[in-house]
From TrEMBL:
One Pfam match: ABC_tran
Catalytic function, reaction form: a polar amino acid(out) + ATP + H2O = a polar amino acid(in) + ADP + phosphate + H(+)
Ligase in keyword set: no
Alphabetized GO MF terms: ATP binding; ATP hydrolysis activity; ATPase-coupled polar amino acid-transporter activity
Organism this protein belongs to: Glutamicibacter soli
PANTHER family: AMINO ACID IMPORT ATP-BINDING PROTEIN, ARGININE TRANSPORT ATP-BINDING PROTEIN ARTM
Keywords for the protein's UniProt record, in alphabetical order: ATP-binding, Nucleotide-binding, Transport
Record EC number: 7.4.2.1
Claim: Metal-binding is one of the keywords in the record: no
Domain ABC transporter: 7-241
Protein name (database record): ABC-type polar-amino-acid transporter
Gene3D superfamilies hit by this protein: P-loop containing nucleotide triphosphate hydrolases
Length: 245
């Protein structure tokens, strides 16, 4: 229970012009913890994730990720991003490169890993997501579920200590959701520290150590999945869950 704090968010505010999207978020995520973030569309879930690896500039507050103060102007943001893998709704694979080359790109360019080593690592990761035979295929020849599994392998190629998922299955055809959730679940079971924004309530209930319900830019309620889903305390949470469960 004394595991290390991997992410510490303190009084985080983020505005876009006059739109105060995040209005004071406090959140602590410990090593190996799987945190699921749920909440209505527009409540700031994606913005919160993007603040964790500085894809957004923070208006005020502090975010410390793997010991790096992301809000410190002197922080090496590329170094931070090496510690934090992110998977988005859309996979953004490079179409002109093979699957393996997509995965090798960051280790070769950013870590100066040699190509032989990077390819071996790519194949190992492809095996992990069940796609080793697709190493030399182009992304265009893959299904949506396969593309997203490649995107997960690509994020893992930098050996991040933290993985962020922003609705990784919501752009997929329904029959492909399961294979991607399975890969995410295996990652969770392997002890990876993860923050998952998801609409898959059944999955959140199964995989999360803790669920955070966000509404209007604040953490409205959080708790163990069985408590949050089974016995929500806030009217706002009850209302949301009554619509999605
Ligand atoms: P969620 O992921 O919970 O649906 P978002 O974090 O995407 O919510 O968006 C929260 C609010 O922030 C929305 O009102 C959205 O319009 C606004 N927003 C998000 N990104 C930007 C941006 N880059 N510029 C301006 N407004 C933005
Ligand atoms: Mg979003």
């Amino acid at each position: 229970m004394n595991s290390q704090v991997k992410i510490q968010v303190t009084d985080l505010h983020k505005s876009f012009g006059s739109n105060n999207v995040l209005q004071g978020i406090d959140l602590e995520i410990r090593e190996g913890e799987v945190l699921c973030v749920i909440g209505p569309s527009g409540s700031g879930k994606s913005t919160l994730l993007r603040c964790l690896n500085k894809l957004e500039d923070i208006t005020s507050g502090t975010v410390v990720v793997d010991g790096f103060d992301v809000t410190d102007p002197k922080v090496d943001i590329n170094e931070v991003r090496r510690h934090v893998g992110m998977v988005f709704q859309h996979f953004n694979l490079f179409p002109h490169m093979s699957v393996a080359e997509n995965i090798m790109l960051a280790p070769v360019e950013l870590k100066k890993m040699n190509r032989t080593e990077a390819r071996a690592k790519a194949l190992e990761l492809l095996e992990r997501v069940g796609l080793k035979e697709k190493a030399d295929a182009r992304p265009a020849s893959l299904s949506g579920g396969q593309k997203q599994r490649v995107a997960i392998a690509r994020a893992l190629a930098m050996s991040p200590g933290i993985m962020l998922f922003d609705e990784a299955t919501s752009a997929l055809d329904p029959e492909m959701v399961g294979e991607v959730l399975q890969v995410i679940k295996e990652l969770a079971d392997s002890g990876m520290t993860m923050v998952l924004v998801t609409h898959e309530m059944g999955f959140a209930r199964e995989v999360a150590d803790r669920v955070v319900f966000m509404a209007d830019g604040v953490v409205c309620e959080q708790g163990k999945p069985e408590d949050l889903f089974g016995n929500p305390q806030q009217a706002r949470t009850q209302d949301f869950l009554s619509k999605v469960l």
